[in-house]
Specification:
Blueprint (H helix, E strand, L loop, with lengths): L2 E3 L6 H8 L4 E3 H8 L8 E3 L2 H4 L1 H15 L2 E12 L16 E8 L3 E10 L2 E8 L4 E5 L4 E3 L11 E11 L1
Antiparallel strand pairs: 1-8, 2-3, 3-4, 4-10, 5-8, 5-10, 6-7, 6-9
Protein backbone atom coordinates (compact mmCIF):
# COMPACT_ATOMS: atom_id res chain seq x y z
CA UNK A 1 0.00 0.00 0.00
CA UNK A 2 1.20 3.51 -0.85
CA UNK A 3 0.59 6.07 1.91
CA UNK A 4 1.07 9.81 1.37
CA UNK A 5 1.41 12.40 4.14
CA UNK A 6 1.63 16.12 3.46
CA UNK A 7 3.23 18.60 5.90
CA UNK A 8 5.50 15.82 7.14
CA UNK A 9 7.87 18.02 9.15
CA UNK A 10 6.52 20.70 11.49
CA UNK A 11 9.34 23.04 10.37
CA UNK A 12 10.58 22.15 6.89
CA UNK A 13 12.85 25.24 6.76
CA UNK A 14 14.82 24.01 9.77
CA UNK A 15 15.22 20.60 8.08
CA UNK A 16 16.36 22.25 4.82
CA UNK A 17 19.02 24.20 6.72
CA UNK A 18 20.36 21.04 8.38
CA UNK A 19 20.35 19.08 5.10
CA UNK A 20 22.41 21.80 3.34
CA UNK A 21 25.36 20.80 5.54
CA UNK A 22 25.40 17.23 4.22
CA UNK A 23 27.74 16.66 1.24
CA UNK A 24 26.35 14.92 -1.84
CA UNK A 25 28.24 13.12 -4.60
CA UNK A 26 27.59 12.03 -8.17
CA UNK A 27 28.33 8.41 -9.07
CA UNK A 28 31.81 9.26 -10.43
CA UNK A 29 32.80 11.13 -7.24
CA UNK A 30 31.37 8.30 -5.11
CA UNK A 31 33.42 5.73 -7.04
CA UNK A 32 36.62 7.74 -6.49
CA UNK A 33 36.01 8.45 -2.80
CA UNK A 34 34.57 5.08 -1.77
CA UNK A 35 36.29 2.88 -4.32
CA UNK A 36 32.84 1.47 -4.98
CA UNK A 37 31.16 1.46 -8.39
CA UNK A 38 27.56 2.71 -8.34
CA UNK A 39 25.03 3.51 -11.01
CA UNK A 40 22.56 6.18 -9.93
CA UNK A 41 21.25 9.36 -11.45
CA UNK A 42 21.96 12.69 -9.80
CA UNK A 43 23.72 13.15 -6.48
CA UNK A 44 23.52 11.20 -3.24
CA UNK A 45 24.92 11.56 0.28
CA UNK A 46 26.41 9.05 2.60
CA UNK A 47 24.01 7.74 5.23
CA UNK A 48 22.65 10.71 7.20
CA UNK A 49 23.43 8.72 10.36
CA UNK A 50 27.14 9.27 9.60
CA UNK A 51 26.87 13.05 9.27
CA UNK A 52 24.09 14.10 11.67
CA UNK A 53 22.83 11.52 14.17
CA UNK A 54 20.40 14.04 15.72
CA UNK A 55 18.79 14.70 12.32
CA UNK A 56 18.73 10.97 11.54
CA UNK A 57 16.88 10.24 14.80
CA UNK A 58 14.49 13.15 14.28
CA UNK A 59 13.53 11.90 10.80
CA UNK A 60 13.21 8.30 12.03
CA UNK A 61 10.99 9.36 14.95
CA UNK A 62 8.86 11.47 12.62
CA UNK A 63 8.37 8.51 10.24
CA UNK A 64 7.32 6.24 13.10
CA UNK A 65 4.99 8.82 14.65
CA UNK A 66 3.40 9.79 11.33
CA UNK A 67 2.83 6.27 10.02
CA UNK A 68 2.18 4.59 13.42
CA UNK A 69 4.78 1.86 12.86
CA UNK A 70 8.27 1.03 14.14
CA UNK A 71 11.17 0.68 11.69
CA UNK A 72 14.79 -0.39 11.64
CA UNK A 73 16.43 1.92 9.12
CA UNK A 74 19.10 0.32 6.98
CA UNK A 75 19.97 3.51 5.08
CA UNK A 76 18.82 7.15 5.00
CA UNK A 77 20.30 9.35 2.28
CA UNK A 78 19.87 12.76 0.75
CA UNK A 79 19.28 12.59 -2.99
CA UNK A 80 19.27 15.34 -5.63
CA UNK A 81 18.26 14.52 -9.18
CA UNK A 82 16.66 15.57 -12.43
CA UNK A 83 16.25 12.37 -14.36
CA UNK A 84 16.61 12.27 -18.13
CA UNK A 85 15.20 8.75 -18.37
CA UNK A 86 12.63 6.67 -16.59
CA UNK A 87 14.14 4.04 -14.33
CA UNK A 88 11.37 1.82 -12.95
CA UNK A 89 12.95 -0.30 -10.23
CA UNK A 90 12.40 -1.92 -6.88
CA UNK A 91 14.59 -1.46 -3.81
CA UNK A 92 14.08 -4.89 -2.25
CA UNK A 93 17.57 -5.92 -3.40
CA UNK A 94 19.03 -4.17 -0.35
CA UNK A 95 17.06 -6.43 2.01
CA UNK A 96 14.48 -3.91 3.12
CA UNK A 97 10.72 -4.15 3.03
CA UNK A 98 9.67 -0.49 3.22
CA UNK A 99 10.73 2.84 1.69
CA UNK A 100 9.96 6.34 2.84
CA UNK A 101 10.57 9.07 0.28
CA UNK A 102 10.39 12.62 1.64
CA UNK A 103 10.19 15.53 -0.81
CA UNK A 104 12.38 18.42 0.41
CA UNK A 105 12.81 20.97 -2.42
CA UNK A 106 11.77 21.18 -6.04
CA UNK A 107 9.07 22.48 -8.34
CA UNK A 108 5.60 21.43 -7.30
CA UNK A 109 3.79 19.24 -9.79
CA UNK A 110 2.97 15.83 -11.18
CA UNK A 111 6.01 15.61 -13.46
CA UNK A 112 8.48 16.20 -10.63
CA UNK A 113 6.97 13.37 -8.61
CA UNK A 114 7.15 9.60 -8.36
CA UNK A 115 5.31 7.04 -10.44
CA UNK A 116 4.33 3.57 -9.28
CA UNK A 117 3.94 0.82 -11.85
CA UNK A 118 2.05 -2.45 -12.28
CA UNK A 119 4.28 -4.36 -14.67
CA UNK A 120 5.07 -1.80 -17.41
CA UNK A 121 2.09 0.48 -16.80
CA UNK A 122 2.04 3.59 -14.67
CA UNK A 123 -0.74 2.99 -12.16
CA UNK A 124 -0.24 5.67 -9.47
CA UNK A 125 1.44 9.05 -9.74
CA UNK A 126 2.31 11.05 -6.63
CA UNK A 127 3.06 14.68 -7.50
CA UNK A 128 5.90 16.60 -5.91
CA UNK A 129 4.96 18.91 -3.06
CA UNK A 130 7.66 20.08 -0.67
CA UNK A 131 7.39 18.41 2.73
CA UNK A 132 5.39 15.41 1.44
CA UNK A 133 6.32 11.87 2.56
CA UNK A 134 5.46 8.66 0.74
CA UNK A 135 5.61 5.28 2.48
CA UNK A 136 5.54 2.21 0.21
CA UNK A 137 6.75 -1.39 -0.04
CA UNK A 138 10.34 -1.70 -1.29
CA UNK A 139 9.27 -4.30 -3.85
CA UNK A 140 6.79 -1.92 -5.54
CA UNK A 141 8.07 -0.89 -8.98
CA UNK A 142 8.61 2.90 -8.94
CA UNK A 143 10.50 5.70 -10.68
CA UNK A 144 10.98 9.43 -10.72
CA UNK A 145 8.85 10.52 -13.67
CA UNK A 146 10.74 13.71 -14.49
CA UNK A 147 11.77 12.35 -17.89
CA UNK A 148 8.14 12.27 -19.08
CA UNK A 149 8.02 16.07 -19.27
CA UNK A 150 11.38 17.69 -18.44
CA UNK A 151 10.05 21.19 -19.17
CA UNK A 152 7.58 20.93 -16.27
CA UNK A 153 10.07 19.85 -13.60
CA UNK A 154 13.25 20.96 -11.88
CA UNK A 155 15.93 19.19 -9.95
CA UNK A 156 14.38 17.77 -6.79
CA UNK A 157 15.88 17.00 -3.40
CA UNK A 158 14.54 14.09 -1.38
CA UNK A 159 15.41 12.10 1.70
CA UNK A 160 15.26 8.40 0.87
CA UNK A 161 14.86 5.92 3.75
CA UNK A 162 15.29 2.19 3.20
CA UNK A 163 14.03 0.24 6.19
CA UNK A 164 12.35 -2.80 7.67
CA UNK A 165 9.14 -2.71 9.63
CA UNK A 166 9.57 -3.99 13.19
CA UNK A 167 6.65 -6.20 14.24
Amino acid sequence: MITVKDNFFSDINQIKTKLQNIPIYDSKQWSQIKNQRVNWQGYRSEDILMSDIELFNYIKDNIETTFHKKFKIKSMVLHERKDKRLNPHTDDNITTDTNCLIYITGKEGIFNGTGFFNKDHLSVNVGFIENRAILFPSNHLHSSIQALNPDKCTSRVTVNCFMNEVQ
